[in-house]
């Protein structure tokens, strides 16, 4: 027996009670009618509860079957999701799209399971679809900002400005991409802080991807005194860069005079390296240049002001 039949039985029982010769005038008349016809009234009430009991008993097999289907369906959904996950992992699909397809598969399977269970309880599938569609419209109107994040997530999946593992700068924050969901993108900063950015904001912002190219340039500047030999300092830095295993030979690193500063000559040092070696090269070269300048007799000046006093 379906849920609809259970409700119909309850309505029939209620109508049978309503057909009793009870006058709808005043409370006193109702009480008087009950006193005059107690057996008939009690009989109608008993019939009502008996019909309800019969309807519940008749619906128990259907409810039990629906519960069994729900439990078996949940187990099957998990198995199917595992198979889909293994199949996607074996393909060459991008990891971002991979996770997105897994999430969509999970939603579709659970929606189908709920529809089947409700159909077993006597609720037509068309009604379920109608309810889901209506609820979707209502939720969409209430969560417009979230829908913009969903649209942004879809655009990120299509355009792929970055992928999981890339180091990016977006919306004033930077970090390594750890997760891209349908609503937000998670970055892990250099200080190991988790940063969650809505996809709607990410898709509309300028994204700097430091990992998508094969190599990256490290921009460094060093100062030497005006009294020091520029060519000697340049030779020292080039030799130092040539010994560093993490600095690429092609493109070749460059050392040039950047400017004549207020109290020093500024050298622009531009080595190239793999994106993953950026900070290692940055810090190691900074330390090694200082040590090389000291051992080579190149002074590292600081800002100073020379005051000349002219006696008249």
Account of the protein in words:
The chain is of the alpha+beta class. It has 3 domains: 3-138, no CATH class; 160-209, SH3 type barrels (Roll), CATH 2.30.30; 216-295, Alpha-Beta Plaits, CATH 3.30.70.100. It has helices at residues 3-18, 27-36, 38-90, 95-120, 125-142, 144-159, 199-203, 230-243, 278-295, and strands at residues 167-170, 173-180, 184-188, 194-198, 207-209, 216-217, 220-224, 254-260, 265-270, 272-273. Helix 3 runs antiparallel to helix 4 (95-120) and helix 8 (230-243) crosses helix 9. The longest helix has 53 residues, at 38-90. The chain is elongated and about 135 Å long. The model is unreliable at 16-25 (pLDDT under 50).
What is the structure about, briefly put?
By secondary structure, the chain is of the alpha+beta class. It is built from nine helices and ten strands. The radius of gyration is 38 Å and the shape is elongated.
**Low-confidence spans:** 16-25
Sheet of most strands:
5 strands, antiparallel
Output the radius of gyration: 38 Å
Count of alpha and pi helical runs: 9
Give the distance, in angstroms, between the N- and C-terminal Cα atoms. Answer: 118 Å
């Amino acid at each position: 027996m379906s849920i609809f039949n259970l409700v119909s039985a309850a309505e029939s029982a209620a109508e049978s009670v309503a057909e009793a010769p009870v006058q709808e005038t005043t409370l006193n008349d109702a009480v008087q009618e009950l006193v005059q016809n107690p057996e008939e009234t009690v009989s109608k009430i008993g019939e009502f509860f008996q019909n309800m009991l019969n309807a519940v008993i008749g619906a128990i097999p259907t409810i039990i079957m629906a519960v069994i289907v729900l439990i078996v369906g949940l187990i099957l959904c998990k198995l199917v999701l595992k198979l889909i996950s293994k199949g996607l992992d074996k393909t060459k699909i991008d990891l971002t799209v991979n996770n997105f397809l897994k999430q969509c598969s999970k939603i579709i399977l659970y929606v189908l399971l709920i529809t089947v269970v409700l159909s077993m309880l006597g609720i037509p599938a068309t009604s379920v679809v109608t309810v889901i569609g209506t609820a979707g419209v209502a939720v969409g109107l209430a969560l417009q900002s979230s829908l913009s994040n969903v649209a942004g997530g879809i655009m990120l999946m299509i355009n792929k400005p970055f992928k999981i593992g890339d180091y990016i700068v977006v919306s004033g924050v930077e970090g390594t991409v750890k997760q891209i969901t349908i609503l937000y993108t998670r970055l892990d900063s250099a200080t190991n802080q988790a940063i969650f950015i809505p996809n709607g904001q990410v898709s509309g912002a300028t994204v700097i991807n430091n990992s998508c190219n094969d190599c990256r340039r490290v921009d460094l500047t060093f100062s030497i005194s005006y009294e020091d030999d520029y060519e000697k300092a340049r030779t020292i830095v080039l030799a130092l860069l040539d010994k560093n295993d993490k600095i690429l030979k092609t493109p070749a690193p460059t050392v040039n005079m950047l400017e004549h500063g207020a109290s020093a000559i500024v050298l622009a040092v531009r080595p190239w390296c793999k994106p993953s070696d950026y900070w290692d090269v940055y810090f190691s070269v900074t330390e090694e240049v200082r040590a090389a300048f000291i051992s080579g007799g190149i002074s590292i000046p600081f800002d100073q002001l020379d005051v000349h006093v002219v006696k008249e």
